[in-house]
Amino acid sequence: MSLVHEIDYGTPASKSETSVTLTIDGRQISVPEGTSVMRASMEAGIQVPKLCSTDMVDAFGSCRLCLVEIEGRNGTPASCTTPVAAGMVVHTQTGRLKDIRRGVMELYISDHPLDCLTCAANGDCELQDMAGAVGLRDVRYGYEGDNHVKARNNDDNNLKWMPKDESNPYFTYDPSKCIVCSRCVRACEEVQGTFALTIEGRGFGSRVSPGMHEHFIDSECVSCGACVQACPTATLTEKSVIQIGQPEHSVVTTCAYCGVGCSFKAEMRGEELVRMVPWKDGQANRGHSCVKGRFAYGYSAHKDRILNPMIREKVTDPWREVTWDEAFAHVASEFRRIQYQYGRDSIGGITSSRCTNEETFLVQKLVRAGFGNNNVDTCARVCHSPTGYGLGQAFGTSAGTQNFDSVEESDVVIVIGANPTDGHPVFASRLKKRLRQGAKLIVIDPRRIDLVRTPHVEAAYHLPLKPGTNVAVMTSLAHVIVTEGLYDEAFIRERCDWSEFEDWAAFVSEPYHSPEETEKFTGVPAQSVRGAARLYARGGNGAIYYGLGVTEHSQGSTTVMAIANLAMATGNIGRPGVGVNPLRGQNNVQGSCDMGSFPHELPGYRHISDDATRDIFEKLWGVKLNNEPGLRIPNMLDAAVDGTFKGLYVQGEDILQSDPDTKHVAAGLAAMECVVVQDLFLNETANYAHVFLPGSTFLEKDGTFTNAERRINRVRKVMSPRNGYGDWEVTQKLAQAMGLSWNYQHPSEIMDEIAATTPSFALVSYDYLEKTGSVQWPCNEKSPQGSPIMHVNGFVRGKGKFIRTEYVATDERTGPRFPLLLTTGRVLSQYNVGAQTRRTDNVVWHAEDRLEIHAHDAEMRGIRDGDWVKLASRSGDTSLRALITDRVAPGVVYTTFHHPNTQANVITTDFSDWATNCPEYKVTAVQVSPSNGPSQWQTEYDEQARQSRRIASKLEAAE
User: Which CATH number fits domain 19-134: 3.30.300.20, 3.90.230.10, 3.30.365.10, 3.10.20.740?
Assistant: First the structure.
């Protein structure tokens, strides 16, 4: 293998459909109108020297290396800023140009340290490359190695290099190497949209600075890595490159964090990962990244990782390391015993949204074909199951309607119940870029998220609704659109059932749905609702993006249907720039749903009761399938407490930390006789496990992930599994131990089976993905190239369905004992339950969960910033430190759930969505009071967890 090289064309591609023909160094080439001369040259195979140009940002024209001569024009214009013209004749290499370039390069080198042999960028330095390209052989100016970025040591009056900034845990800033090309500044502005960097000083004193004399760690920098990637020298360098050296081969794979599904080059030395570099051809991320995908991969080699199978008789016993064969035999024996003793339905499985499509498919197949029941569920139950139900009812399929590129054509964007800058940062950067170009933004969220106001971006409307009132706000928006005649009648008559629309329109037109009436309990000013509705309906292409702040409610499914109603009523479906788009939380939430992880659905969202669908799988698998839906996760736990559910296989999920009402989850797990956890670490669920099967990271496996835009992306193995097996192999060996004759040799064979049984994946194969890079389902005979935009000529279900969305207040109410409303969410640096990111240097930014509370509420309770507080609900209590802020309104508090020592879900209730049992994480009545540290429950929990994680071999070694 070798390094996968990407061509840098110097300037972005033109999107013009008009072609222009010109001649460059005697070669005739046709390119789109608006293309730069530099890019045209590169496309003709002619490399023009450059330093300040890169195709990730707009042309700048400062380095003066890319000068060319154009017949009929005076001077030597910069090729990066000069657009092509018909008939243009360009010369890139003349005696005059050679002299100019060498002179320019000589000035650069005279002002740069000549420590190339010991420089971390040696072998990957554009300055070094360009010196060679222009033929520089001598430097006439100044002293060799002298540099303007030096500081005088007052003690000995000697000059020394200006100190490096090592404050960021992932990269080093060395100002002595800066050539002031501004690429990092422009990347921060144009690609990331944070505007954290600037050029400080003038003339020889100019250099890049993260703010006003700040260190990187203290600045507004979000550590996305765009500046490091853009830097042509060693000014900004990954610390891993400094420590390990330059990579010698790379593999393109897919990030295993959020649902954006970014493509990366994993750059390696042998089996050691040097760095992750965002892949420019990645169609989800277009060469950008965030701090998690770019840098937070160290968990794969963390000391906490478990690499050997373990078993124990009781959860109070220490773990005992065993062989893989012994572990598989033990699980198979226990599951058979339990089913013989308690019945076929007494065991089940939970698939993972972090694992690949192929691995998830095998787990649900094991449950259906091996366990003989349909007791299989997934973490999507507790995040996006209302998306599946709501969009399925309205449109006929449970997935987002657009690709991420679509946002570039949006004119108005509604973000509801999502915080893209923290949860989906790469998409957020693309959204912010579109907003800077003039698109309008409407934010519907109880909390003032960053998008409400951030550098160069401000929402036209922020509707700070009271948690739990999503349905009322969405219906009041519809009320304005219908009563003011802002709906798209032509679209509705053509694409939807007109009589259903009339019924819905009459419903939303009722006076009690008016913004003036709903304001009384949503807290959103009527005029803001009316303004937002008019903007969305009249503003051009309108797109809606939503997250868990929509789905994790008792009316989650109702809100999803209300969103669908709004999009259909305004005709914002079926073309670029519009649509309804759920922002999936984990890397493969979409895929785990697609693969049949719900107890009532086989792969492709087909109901288990459908005889024809079951027949497809029965013939292929050679077994008779149960036609009755199985148990959902909450039902499994209830049945366990009742004594009828006794065995569980959990792959890659931590239900004890991530699911609601922690005490009930713990009681359910404690009541089981054989809990099998397959994961990287001894997570919180493993505290109650009897068997632990070591998992493998995304770096150690082949497969596919499906992101939030339905994009099927290849995951490629870049190193051998440290535990010995990929997760798909572990499931297969477990199935074989239970008597199933599985014999897959490679995950590609599993995908072939998925394609053979699932219509939306019919043409998907590894060979096809190698040719296309990725594809968005449905990919079948009707859509052989995939489907970037859904519902183009009609809805999957036929006619779009308008559905009444009556607001029903949650049963969770505030009162004298619990007067505040708690809502939860994520931060940029951490991911989900934190099992991965907590084991990286990302803890520098978020070392603990904090409780955000408004100054008014804090003052009433005698709470100061940083104080320990007790957070209590009807379900339980925990303690954490307070963060006083105006991001939340009085009466609302907010926290994250990344750290198990907080266990925020001990607070949340067992209320859930009426259609899907998705928990109501976002609305919990609580009280906050001063505390002096961890609660008794936390202390007891920590001790139980510590005892549960004892491993006999390590205890013996310690003795």
Answer: 3.10.20.740
